[in-house]
Amino acid sequence: MNSNYEIVVGLEVHAELSTETKIFCGCKNEFGAEVNTNVCPVCMGLPGTLPVLNEQVVEYAIKMGHAMNCTINGTTKHDRKNYFYPDLPKSYQISQFDIPLCENGYLDVLVGDEVKRIGVTRIHIEEDAGKLIHDDSLGGSLADYNRCGVPLIEIVSEPDIRSADEAKAYLDTIHTTLLYLGISDAKMQEGSVRCDVNVSVRPAGSTEFGTRVEMKNVNSFSAAHRAINYEAARQIKVLEEGGEIVQETRRWDDVKGVNVLLRSKEDAQDYRYFPDPDLLTFVVSDEKIAEIKASIPELPVAKTMRYMSEYKLSRADSELLALNKNTAAFFEAVIATGKCEPKSVSNWILGDIYKVLNERKCEITDLALTPANLAEMISLIEKKTISNAAGKTVLEVILDENKDPNEIVKEKGLAQVSDTGALNAIVEKVLANNEKAVTDFKNGKTNVVGFLVGQCMKESKGKGNPAMLKDMVVAAIEKM
Amino acid sequence: MEIDIMRLAKLAKLSIPEDKVEEFRKKMEDIIQMVENLPDLDTQGSLVDPTNTMELRKDEVQPSFPRNEMLQNAPYTAAGCILIPKVVD
Amino acid sequence: MDKLYSLTAAQMKDLLDRKEVTSVEITKSVIDRIEKTDGEIQAYTSYNFEQALQQAAAADEKRAKGETVGELAGIPVAVKDNMCTKNLRTTAGSKMLGNFVPPYNATVVEKLLADGAVIIGKTTMDEFAMGSSGENSAFQVARNPWDTTRVPGGSSSGSAATVAASQVPLALGSDTGGSIRQPACLTGIVGMKPTYGAVSRYGLIAYGSSLDQIGPMARTVDDTAMLFKAICGKDKMDATSKDYTYTPYGDSVKGMKLGLPKEYFGEGISAEVKERIYQAVEVLKAQGAEIVEVSLPSTDYALSAYYIIACAEASSNLGRYDGVKYGFTGSDRSSLENLYISSRSEGFGEEVQRRILLGTYVLSSGFYDAYYKKAKVLQKVIAKEFDDALKLCDAIITPLNPTTAFKIGEKSNDPVAMWAGDICTVTLNIAGLPGINVPCGFDSNNMPVGFQVLGRKFSESTLLTIAKCYENTVGGFAVKEF
To answer: What would the pLDDT profile of A338-365 be if each residue is shown by its tens digit?
Structure first.
C-alpha cells in the first residue's frame, strides 16, 4: 500500500439473531428448511396482516449493545424503510431510523499486540428479507420467503478503522462476541453474518475524510479484507492519476477479486422512512436493561488480556483459548482446581486436545473429558508421578471416559520409576550397548545424551523419569 | 409550487400516461395547496410516544401455513416458489 | 313468518331464543331479499350464501341441543370487503385484489364466527376505502336506498346500503376518516367508529393504519351495541389493540353535559343540516342534558393533517401490491420494473394512485418534516384540544356531514371538493376518539340527516346512552320501505 495515503473504513454488519421464532410472527427461525414452508400471512406480508414484536429480539440486541459498550435507548420505536424488491414482500422493511435500540458505543479489538478502540455508532433491530434463486431454465427468478422476518441486528461502526487488518480484527471480534453471548449462530457460510464496507482514502496526516465508496456483496470476513485492500488501491490509483473519487455504491466480486459500479449517488434511493403505525413505541425498563447487562459474560478480548497478564500466557495462546466460549470456560475450570500450572493447562488444551477437536470437528463440551480429570492428570505429571508420555496415554482414556487418572495410572502401571537402583541398572545396560554414542559424548558431541536417554526410556517401557535418567547418564559417562 | 410528478411516479412504481400528466399535476397541486394549510409548529424531536406503548410477544413458535395456501394467490409459481422476471443484483 | 329479513338483530335473537324461528329460515329470507333487491342496491361484491346456510344450520343445531350460544348466533351479518375472509374472495373494492382469496380470517370475522353469526357476504366499497361516495369501487357503485340516483356515502357504501335497505340487520364497516359514520349518516342508520385500539385491525386491509378502525352499523342503537360487543377487545395479533371491557349503556342523558363546538357549525355546513341538529340538541336538552359551548380551535387544520397522515401510510401500505405475490398482475413482464409499473398502473384506480402519489410526496426526502412530521405534531395538538374540551363535558355533538347524500357523478371529478366533505369526521380519527352517527330526520329532498356524538377514549357506552336516549325520545329511527 502506498504509504502516502491513509485508509479509512467504516463497516455495517448484519447479524441474524438465533431466536426460536421470527421477529414479527411465530414462524420458526430456522435455516435450511424446504422453500416457503416457514411462512405465514404475517411474514409474507399478506393484505391485512400486522407485526407483533418478539421480546427475545429486543433482549438479544440489548445484550450486544452492552457488549459493545453502547447507551441503550429504553424507549424506542420502529420505522418503515420503503423500497420495491421481490425479496421484500411488504415493499418496506421494518427497521429503526432515528432512535436505534443501542448507540454511541465502542469495541476494543486486538490488532497485533495493540488494543484498538473502534467506535460503534449504533445497533438497531430489523427484519431480514427473503431469498431469490436465479434459475435460467425457468427464464426468471424464484422467491423463497422463509428468511423473511428473521431477526437481524445491524451494527454500524464509526469510520475508525485504518486498515484491512483492523477491519478483519473488528469483524472477528464481533463474530466471537455474538457466539459468546449466544445470540447468533454467526455462520458466514449460511449468510447469518454479512457486511457492507465503506472505504475512503486520504493523504497521510490529513484530518479530513475523503469521499467514501460503499461496497455491497461482501460475504465473508476474509472477503472484506480483500475488498478493502482492492478498493483502497483503486482509489489511490485514481487520485495518483489526478482523478477524483465519486460517491457511489460498488459490488464486490470475490471470485474475480474486483469490484464494479452498482449505482451512482444520483440513483440513490429515497427510502421515505416514517414510524411504523402498526407498532407502537416500546419501553424496556431500566431494571430490565440492568438485568441484561448483569448477564453479560466476560468477553473474548477482555479474557485474552487477562490470560496474558494473570497467567503469563502468550498473546497467541491467550487469544486461541479465549476465542471459543466453551474452551475458555473449560480452561478456567481446570485452573480453578488449583492443581496445576496455567501454562501446562494451556499447552495440553491447545496441543493434544485441540488436535482431537479438529479431527472430530466437535466442541470441548462434546467430550467426556472433565476439567477435574484433566487437572488431576496434569498434576500427576507436574508431581513427576507419571511422564509426559504416560500423560498422553491417560488423556486418551479420559477423553472419552469419566475415570480417575490415578486409577488409570495404577491399572496400566504407568507410574514413573524414580528408584535410583532400578534406573542405574537400565543406564548401565544402555551405556554398555551403545559404546559409539558414549565415545561420541566423550569427544564433545554432548547432544547424543538425548539419544541415550531415549534408549533408557525405551528400556524402562516409558516409565523412567527422564530428568533423572539424563542426570544419571551424564554422571555415569563422566565416571567412566 | 411545482411538483415533480414523474419523480414521484417513479418512486411509487406508477406510470402516468403522457396526456394525463398535466391533469394529474393540476389535481395534485390543488390537493397539496389544501394540505399545506398547516400552522407553524415545532417539529424538532422524535415521534416516539411513551404515553402510548405496546406489549411484546413471547418467543414461542406458532405453526406456519401450508405452502399451497400461501402460494394460492400467486400469478406464477415454480418449484414451490413464486416466479418473477429475472432479477440481476 | 313474513319479512324475517326486516327484523332487527335484537328481534331475531328474541325469536331464535324462543325457538319461534330458525336461523335457516331467517337466512333464507335474507338471501331471498338480497336476490330480489341487490340488482338495484349493488351492496355486495361477493355473496356467501352457501356457507351462510351452513353456518345458520350449525347455529340452529347448537340451539336445538340447548348448548350455550353467542349473542349473534344465527343472525346474518354483512362484512365490508376489506376484511379478510378465509376462502372467500376479498377485494377491498379494487381490481388489484379482484381474484384475491385470503388463506386466513380477520380477527373480527373469527369473533363473529365464534359467536355463531352468519356471514352473508362481502359489501361494496370505495377502492381500498379511499372515498366518501362509493363511486371509487372498481366493480360497482352501491346505491342509497332512499334515492337510488344518489350515493350511499363511503367508503363503507355497501354496508350502509344493505342495512338501510333492510337486506340484513347488521354490517361491519371500517372508518379511517369517516367511512362508517358518513355512509351511516347519508343512509339514515346508526354507525359507530370505536376508539382506536378497541377493535382488532388484524385482517383489515390497511389504508391508513394509525387511523383505521372497524365498527358496527345497524338500524337501531341496540343492534349497533350488540355487534360492537361481539367484536371489541384486545387481540394478540394487533399490537395497537387495547384491553377493552364492554360496559352496558343506559338510556338517560339527565345531568349529562353535552358540548357544542362552534368550529363545527360554520359556513361549510348546510343550513338544513344545522337546523336538524339544533332540533336534536333541543330534544336531548328536554331530556335533561346540559348544553355547554366548547372550543376546538385547530379543527381547520385537521383535514390537512388527516390527508397527509392517511396518504403517507397508504403509500407504504399499498406498496405490497406489485403483481408478484397475489392479486392482479400487469401485462408487461419484460422486466421486474415493468411488471411493477404495469401491475400498479393497471391495477389501481385513479383516486388510489393520486393518494399514493401524495403520500409518496409528503414522505419524500426534503418534504418529510414540512408535511408528515408536522401533521403528526398537529395530531397531538388536536388530541389535546379534544382532551381539554372533554374535561368540560361528557360528550360533544357536531354535524356529521356538511350535506345530505348527493347525486352519483356530481362530485366525482373534483377531488378537493370530495375531500373537503370529510371535515366533521376526520378529527376523531386523528384524535383516536369514538364517534357515532345518530339519524335525526330528513332534508327537503327527503334524504337522511344525522348528528355525530363523540366522546373520550373508550367511552362508547356514553355515546350509546346518548344515542339510545334520542332514539327512544323520537320513537325510533325511520326505516326506508324498499
So the answer is: 999 999 999 999 999 999 999 999 999 9
Domain total in chain B: 1
| Per-window interface: C 325-364 vs A, CB < 8 A | 325-326, 336, 340, 360, 363-364
pLDDT at A425: 84
User: pLDDT confidence of A468, banded at 50, 70, 90?
Assistant: confident
Which parts of chain C register pLDDT below 50?
Answer: none
Chain B CA closest to residue C310: B35
- The residue in chain C having the minimum alpha-carbon distance to the alpha carbon of residue A52 is C239
Judge: A50–C202 Cβ closer than 8 Å, yes or no: yes
- Confidence class of residue A478 from pLDDT cuts 50, 70 and 90? confident
Residue with grid cell 366533521, as numbered in its chain: C424
Residue B15 lies in a domain: yes
- Quickly count helices (H) and strands (E) in chain A: 16, 16
- Residue B1's pLDDT band, with cuts at 50, 70 and 90, is low
Q: Are residues A361 and A325 in the same domain?
A: yes
Q: Give chain C's domains with CATH numbers.
A: 1-482 (3.90.1300.10)
A270 touches chain C (CB under 8 A): yes
Query: What span, in angstroms and rounded, lies between the C-alpha atoms of B30 and C414?
Result: 10
CA distance readout (Å), A92 to A129, A447, B21, C264, C414: 10, 75, 27, 38, 32
Interface probe for C, chosen from A44, A91, A132, A144 (most Cβ of C below 10 Å), is A91
Residue A400, pLDDT above cutoff 70:
yes
CA–CA–CA angle A101, A304, A342 (5° rounding): 145
Q: Which domain holds residue A439?
A: 420-479
Task: For chain C, positions 228-247, list CB contacts with chain B under 8 A.
Answer: 236, 239-240
Does B31 map to a domain?
yes
Confidence of residue B89 (pLDDT cuts 50, 70, 90): low
In a domain, B30, yes or no: yes
Shortest Cα distance, chain C CAs vs residue A272, angstroms: 5
How far apart are the C-alpha atoms of A425 and A459, rounded to whole Å?
10
At residue A389, the pLDDT reads 84
The conformation of residue B57, written as its DSSP 8-state character, comes to: B
Q: Do both A91 and A235 map to the same domain?
A: yes
Q: Give the range of the structural domain holding residue B22, as residue numbers without chain letter.
A: 5-36
Q: Which of A412, A439, A454 is the last residue of a domain?
A: A412
Entry pTM = 0.91
Considering only the beta carbons, identify the residue of C307, C345, C377 that sits closest to B15.
Answer: C345
**C213 strand-pairing partners:** C175
The reply to whether residue B83 touches residue A75, judged by beta carbons under 8 angstroms, is no
Where does a domain end: A237, A262, A292?
A292
A382 and A312 both lie in a single domain = yes
Q: Is some CB atom of chain C closer than 8 A to the CB atom of A316?
A: no
DSSP assignment of A68-107 equals TTPEE-SEE--EEEE---TT-TTSEEEE--SS-SEEEEEE
Maximum alpha-carbon separation in chain C: 70
**Could you list the active site residues of C?**
80, 155, 179
Is the same domain home to A239 and A201?
yes
Distance from CA of B8 to the nearest CA of C (A): 6
